[in-house]
């Protein structure tokens, strides 16, 4: 109760001090003072003394608070503003407060590696300048924070290593985000079918409890997409043939799931792929020859599956110093394979993966035209 009274008095005092006779609004730094003091009062533990400098009205002198003067570039005479807050690795314990929405000039908020709890206040929708929000490695809980999707100019969203749960909203992949990090939470349910709508260059959904299959249209994602990680979920079904459309993809990791069926030949169209990891699934069939010829491969793992054979081209990967792991499959005559009883019944042997017939040698451009013409 005393804290609430203090904050109310604080807000009124600064409103009266900074409001002119003509009714002009408070200055940006006055608003920032109110916001930061309100937040400081909601932080219950500061073992590193990070907030000791958060005293007085000169918020630009606060540790972790960075100011900028837009008048230097834009002719704006309003003076300096709080442009960013970086309290990474502060070990702070507390919550985020509604008053932080007063920091309308803030472009980045980095709170990695603290002990913040709760979730994102709904008032964050008023943070018009915010482009980077990093809440990773904290103790946030509850469903996906929809308030993050209402921040109008957000480009970078990092929620990894928290305890968020429930489904991932499809609105996430309609946002103009360049980076999406949701890994190491407790998100569950299907991956939204509009994943391909995202313009992001990095999407990390690893280490959650996601079920269902990889969306069939996932290959129609933005050509900007460089990395996508599905590893360590509960995904089933096939690896879509359309992933061959990711001509600039560098990392694809779908390991530690329950994916079945054959690897699609279209993987050979990933000319820039460096890490291709589908280990610890239930994949079967032979490795496509062309996949083993990928020029940029640094790591290729199909370990712990039910692969039944591979060609001479794949053996050349060892000579190229590629991290090629094919252990514990079902390849006759090869060492470190599954015992025969495990290979007598291939999981998903009758599964149809809706593969389009392809011409050999695989012409990736022709293939992509075919996939485009058959797209839903």
Automatic annotation (TrEMBL):
InterPro entries: Leu-rich_rpt (IPR001611), LRR_dom_sf (IPR032675), LRR_extensin-like_regulator (IPR051582), LRR_N_plant-typ (IPR013210)
Entry-linked Pfam families: LRR_1, LRR_8, LRRNT_2
Domain Leucine-rich repeat-containing N-terminal plant-type: 35-67
Signal sequence annotation: 1-23
Entry keyword set: Cell wall, Cell wall biogenesis/degradation, Glycoprotein, Hydroxylation, Leucine-rich repeat, Repeat, Secreted, Signal
Matches recorded under Gene3D superfamilies: Ribonuclease Inhibitor (3.80.10.10)
Domain of life per record: Eukaryota
GO biological process terms on file: cell wall organization
Principal place of residence: secreted
Compartmental location: Secreted, Cell wall
Residue ranges that the Swiss-Prot or TrEMBL entry lists as coiled coil: none
PANTHER family xrefs: LEUCINE-RICH REPEAT EXTENSIN-LIKE PROTEIN 3-RELATED, LEUCINE-RICH REPEAT-CONTAINING, PLANT-TYPE, LEUCINE-RICH REPEAT DOMAIN SUPERFAMILY
Protein name: Cell wall hydroxyproline-rich glycoprotein
Lineage of source species: Eukaryota, Viridiplantae, Streptophyta, Embryophyta, Tracheophyta
